[in-house]
């Protein structure tokens, strides 16, 4: 019987090709208006941008939604996984391969409208408790800088926690702050604008550079021709 051995290099090349042919898994969370479930389907402005970007790049993908911490962890630890809409920061820069910008987010500190709390700089809030939610970039940003952050599982709980004085202030996006507080029937107002940072698709480092470049080139073209801005303008 004649034996046949496939060269090791050929095996590695075939394995690499097989891995690339699998669809990427784009993890996300329910975070209106960027990505959210509607009638059982994942939609939102960032979802639409990511889907169109991948289609134009010729990259197959599958959308998965879940709690933010799980989605983030999947992209960080599992091959072929990415997560959006992830806020780009120096702390996260080297954890992933990035495709951006999909959008930008302004981090704002809110307070109750009738609260006497004042602050000229972020450091003025060092002695106060700031509300956030687990795994969110705003909460992580504040904790890394020594602020006292009381986290909950979802951002929608924070307006009521302001009213009950569980927290003194609330860190969230400039879009979600007014929306969630209005839904809760609670009047808030901005206290400080902390930062404005890009959001993108954060991919596991196992994903090859060729695929990342295809996605980035596609997004760059969409930003240049106005397709991204047109989708962003649909925020309500």
UniProtKB/TrEMBL annotation:
Pfam families the record matches: SBP_bac_3
Domain Solute-binding protein family 3/N-terminal: residue ranges: 23-235
SUPFAM superfamilies, A to Z: Periplasmic binding protein-like II
Gene3D superfamilies: Periplasmic binding protein-like II
Annotated signal peptide: 1-21
Superkingdom of origin organism: Bacteria
Keyword entries, A-Z: Signal
Name of the protein: Solute-binding protein family 3/N-terminal domain-containing protein
Source organism per UniProt: Haematospirillum jordaniae
